[in-house]
Write a sequence for this structure.
């Protein structure tokens, strides 16, 4: 099982602050059945202005800690891109984005404000050959009214949708939990990930799921995470 959305690289965003924490988070997810990871720090202009270079440096630090502790598993890095003005500028300049695998790129929207020009941005992304995966769409409250149209519209624009597993619980609030159930019943989600930032997230995941129940969940709803696993 692969988790391709998390904030485990130490010290470069609002996730793990240090290598020791990163190791503990990884071990906790391994206990839940995860065998492969793609680490995805934020790239947000105002708060986390990471670059491929800074993410690679953080990944190297994490790799050294994993090697020192004899933790061997398939891992790589990409990023979670906020679709902000800087993202649009990079797109216009045809700067390369960090990809999860093949041409898939993980993106997110603001939680506060519905994004402008999403149709154009998604079109431009795909014209350049990228396949956008939208992180935690169930958490964008502004889409909850007329939710079926809004989320189907995003899928029609070419976005694949990635569920945060904790949205199945009341962790983000009952409204998010409720819309998540509706979207599941409508078979809208393509993938499911942890979006793990810290031990509170890990504890909530451990309280809600076991290795067996996660495997059953992935099988029941046909989440396609396995398509991103390295051969």
């Amino acid at each position: 099982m692969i988790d391709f959305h998390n904030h485990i690289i130490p010290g470069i965003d609002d996730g793990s602050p240090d290598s020791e924490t990163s190791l503990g988070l990884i071990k906790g997810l391994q206990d839940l059945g995860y065998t492969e990871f793609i680490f995805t720090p934020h790239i947000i202009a105002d708060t986390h202005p990471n670059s491929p270079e800074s993410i690679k440096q953080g990944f190297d630090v994490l790799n050294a800690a994993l090697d020192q502790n004899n933790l061997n598993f398939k891992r790589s890095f990409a990023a979670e891109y906020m679709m902000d003005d800087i993202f649009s500028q990079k797109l216009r300049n045809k700067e390369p984005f960090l990809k999860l695998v093949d041409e898939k790129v993980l993106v997110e929207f603001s939680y506060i404000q519905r994004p402008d020009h999403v149709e154009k941005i998604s079109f431009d992304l795909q014209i350049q050959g990228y396949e956008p995966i939208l992180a935690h769409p169930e958490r964008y409250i502004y889409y909850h009214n007329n939710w079926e149209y809004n989320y189907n519209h995003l899928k029609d624009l070419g976005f694949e949708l990635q569920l945060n597993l904790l949205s199945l619980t009341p962790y983000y609030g009952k409204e998010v939990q409720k819309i998540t159930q509706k979207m599941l019943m409508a078979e809208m989600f393509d993938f499911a990930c942890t979006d793990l930032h810290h031990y509170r997230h890990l504890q909530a995941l451990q309280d809600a799921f076991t290795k067996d129940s996660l495997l059953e969940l992935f099988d029941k709803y046909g989440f396609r995470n396995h398509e991103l696993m390295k051969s």
In short: The helical segments are 19-31, 52-68, 85-92, 118-127, 147-156, 174-185, 199-208, 211-221. The chain is about 40% helix and 15% strand. The radius of gyration is 17 Å. The chain has a mean pLDDT of 97.
